[in-house]
From TrEMBL:
Residues 846-887 have a biased composition (Basic and acidic residues). Pfam families: DUF7791, NPHP3_N. The keyword Coiled coil applies. Residues 270-434 form the Nephrocystin 3-like N-terminal domain. It comes from the Eukaryota. PANTHER family: AMELOGENIN, NACHT DOMAIN-CONTAINING PROTEIN. The keyword Cell membrane does not apply. Residues 544-702 form the DUF7791 domain. Keywords: Coiled coil, Repeat. Residues 122-165 form a coiled coil. It comes from Colletotrichum asianum. Residues 846-908 are annotated as: Disordered. This is NACHT domain-containing protein. The lineage of its organism: Eukaryota, Fungi, Dikarya, Ascomycota, Pezizomycotina.
Amino acid sequence: MDPASAFGLAASIVQTITFTSGLISKSRQLHHSAQRGLVENEELASIARTLQSHSRRITIQLVGAPMGKDDVGKNLATICNRVRDLCKNLICTIEGLQKPDSATRWDSFRQALRSVWKEQDIADLAQRLERYRRQIDSVLLASMKEQLETLTKETRDRNQQIEQSLNKILAIVEPKSRWQAELVQTARRSLDSGPSEGLAYLDLVSASLSAGAKEERDKLMQRRTLESLKFADIRDRYERIPVAHRKTFEWIFSEPSTSPPEGRNPPWDNFHGWLTSDEVLYWVTGKPGSGKSTLMKFLSDDARLRPQLEGWQKDIPVHIASFFFWNSGTMMQMSREGLLQSLLHQTIRNFPQDIPRLFPERWEYQELFGYDSRPWSWSELSQAFTEMLSDKTKAFFFIVDGLDELDGDCSEMTSYLLRAFSQGPHIKGCVSSRPWLVFEDSFRRKPSLKMEDFTKKDITLFATEKLTENTMFAQLQRLDGKSAGALIDEVSEKASGVFLWVTLVVKSLLEGLRDGDKIQDLRSRLEDLPPDLQSLFRKLLKDLEPSYFQQSSRIFQVVRASHLPRASIAVGEYKSIEVKGDTHEAWSSLRLLSLSFIDEDPEEALLNVSQGTMGSDEQGYRAKGMRRQLQSRCKGLLEVPTFSTTGPESKVDYLHRTVKDFLEEGGGGDFLTTEDSFDPHVVLCAALIRHARAIRPTEDDMTGMESLADILREFTTQCHWLERQNRDVYVPYLEEMNKIAEAILGGPGGDKPPPDSSQTDWVFSFPHWTRRVDPYVGRKAARVWCLFDYAVVRSLTQYVRRQLSTGYSLKDNPNHKFLTEYVLEHGTQAVAELLDLGIITSKEIKGKSSGNEKDVEIEKAEGSTREMRSEKTAAHNPTTKREKDWSTSRFRHSIHQVSQRFSLRRKK
């Protein structure tokens, strides 16, 4: 084996040994705290994944290395195989420790191991690990000795060739490490000083390998921590905010005049001066649609910001971070956790060496278990944020837009930000919100500005340039400049500082110019348009062409259906969740190409299985046509902001939050009339299937794979929603999408594992596509390997019932044991439901019970099941609605009580 391959393989083996030794060390255990404490199933799963990763890495390196005829390769291969067997043995042991229905917790992995191994066995394992490490040292010394002897025999200029060989080895191990020079010098001295110096050389090589492995591991842990702070849509809201129109908002960096702007009162606080002052916070406020978010994006992008901030803090580096709350986004985009994760991610990536100090418990957790997939808690994030801001060797400037779009207590958030930003003169924050009383009370004594007091000139500039781009209006300006100018002045005055209003009105005027309107027609059109946004939206939709009304209504219904409370649905518990659709709207990942399929019969999506991949030309044609329909049927209230760059995969959304509020809360819902035969959720499921068939990306097509992931997330969300409505209409669509996804992303490829593989190897070797698109499954239920498993874990009961009724045999599922244990962990409600479905039997459950108390609960579960069956029977009998409601209520109450007892006992 060549030196480079030998050292690479040796380094990987050392990393594996170091990790395993740390697991069983007597001195290693987690510090107990409210958030981080005891070794449970999640930690065991994390250890298993890390061991599998180490084992897989050394296997790949061993297979890829040229073995040759030397003893070095054979010896390393022997050690490698022994370490792999050790990992496999530990993984099997961990699988035995993972019992979802067990309340056992341990202080360390060693303690967990002692529950199934003898203390002497653990001690023997530690000795074996140390022996393997020493064997690697000996093999490496032999390899180096062999290389040096060969070089000495082949040439008289041995010093030059030895240096070349050592440099080659060092380039593989760690080119820029601090110990490189010392290693070379020690090796040279060993040639002249005899065998005794060779031992020192060996110790240095061994220590260097360990140090290099630790340094590499620390860098990996830093990257993983940063990646865990980052969430999928961390920049999505920022990218959706329109770029400021040319030459607008320039006044923000200018000195204010001594008189109130444009005759308004009071004058604004100097933003330019605030940047270099000791004032902590600046508040930007204004009417809905006045351009607050556009201004905040303008500030974060403008090159003049950093130089002015450097004038504020001349001697220390300034770190700038921003966050844009979004009420129509995902839970992370409207939550306080999303705010801190985003700000921490943007700042800490500039100094990752501080991560162990900022997240000590999470760092220790990673050192012990190798990987930490748990979600971030508010207390952990806020502690890290406070600790980061306490560092006075750095300055921080934060831009936080849309505080009024927070999903939570705005008063608590403003208080938190004021406390955080007041930790020292090295911190500043610029925030924006609507002029709600909660913000006025909190920020009344802070420097501020009101958008509508400053945007009249910007609005005039915007209206002038947009209208004069039209050849008919440009000609009107030349022929009757006074009338053209008066029209623009009327637009600016009527806008009252609301940019969104003028954007829609200018579009309406341009439509009139397209249709040949004269100046008096344009003025009449302007007079007919209401001055407030809600009335304007209603007017625009009322004036739609009658032939477009049905299509328009369907488009709006599908877009609204795509805004489901994704976070509430994907909670990961095997129980019915109260969906808070009114307050927890989720961002839509609806793409333009998906929307282009909504006019087609949804049932044909199940029949047209021969539909092939669409070429880029056909995709582009459909997308362009759909975009034109949005413009003509939706009057600009829906937008595709990234069409020029992303084309058919562009995302469709409301023009502004005020449009969403109008359609869903402000009376615009009357426009969303539902035809009896039109179900937007089913139509969307069918459209997503057609979209997935059309693109069929390969693994190396990153853009296509990202689109497919969004399609699958949106699709599973719709299935969950229909399940919560007790509708099984989604089942055939789910089965069809599963076929498509497995064909693209891979799947189990059979019902049973081959006889020469373990169940664990089989399940983990063929991850189901749902593990790639559902974070909960990837984190909490990684054993999911087929659609049936996913349906059980995620409570898709309609699908499970359908499968069992058509002869599905659970005995052929290698995950039968896992599914049984999983549902037992999640309470009596799941047990009762699965007893009724026939997935598990009371005998199986009692076989896992420990004590009479558990048997009592099982009997209650069986009783609940009998009630549920009786209720189904009663549904076919002529009982009154009142009797049925009473029976349902009693059943739910019984389940709730038993579930509570399970929860309390698990906490104890």
